[in-house]
Protein: Iron-dicitrate transporter ATP-binding subunit
Organism: Agreia bicolorata
Amino acid sequence: MTLHSLDTRLPRLAASDITIGYDRRVISRDLSVDIPDGSFTVIVGPNACGKSTLLRALSKLITPSAGQVVLDGRSISSYKAREVARVLGLLPQTSLAPDGITVADLVARGRHPHQEFMRQWSRDDEAAVVAAMAATGVTELSGRHVDELSGGQRQRVWVAMVLAQQTPLMLLDEPTTFLDIAHQIELMELFTDLNELGTTLVAVLHDLNQAARYATHLIAMKDGSVVAQGAPSEIVTASLVEEVFGLRCIVVPDPVTGMPSVVPMGRERVRR
């Protein structure tokens, strides 16, 4: 079976009864997750609940001690790293750029999975890099050194590198980190556009309202387990938010999209 010989009854990416963690510490045990094809899936939950660990397992950064992650009908462990990188792009939570590298050169690294001994840099590669920088608003930074940029600028450059990879699956670990609210929304709109064009996205987000607004499929985790999953309109309730986050709230329709919007109750105060 080749990488693209798909069983249409199965999702392209799934975790089946995986046990994952670090060293001898288990984060999740017997965890199963299907990523719906063509979805914008967002994983939410409190800190240290296993969101990023699950994403790392889905991307082959860590290997489950039991169970398996399945990509296109085969265990992801059976693929070479370059094969995975042609299908699955990853934006990790923290990334380090080589000293002295420029924005354009870093974004161009997203094309490395497509390079081979007999296929070097092409017009298609150049076009992919230009388009990725334009989409993330970093074109004017192309000649700057990455280590000279602000945290928000660097984050957009890393996103551009993943976009330049041009994979049908993208995994994003806290992609809005360091960004102001305007750039957060701009980036979420970009991800929505990519999803509408056919890219399957999986993102870890801390902002529950952004998750509910933009996700087509939501996975809520707590203590290494999936508490609920499904369309945000079906699963985001006040009881779920309290169960997962320990937060009393009310859930009202987003006045712009009509999707669920979480309003924390907080403590009662006397207003003067």
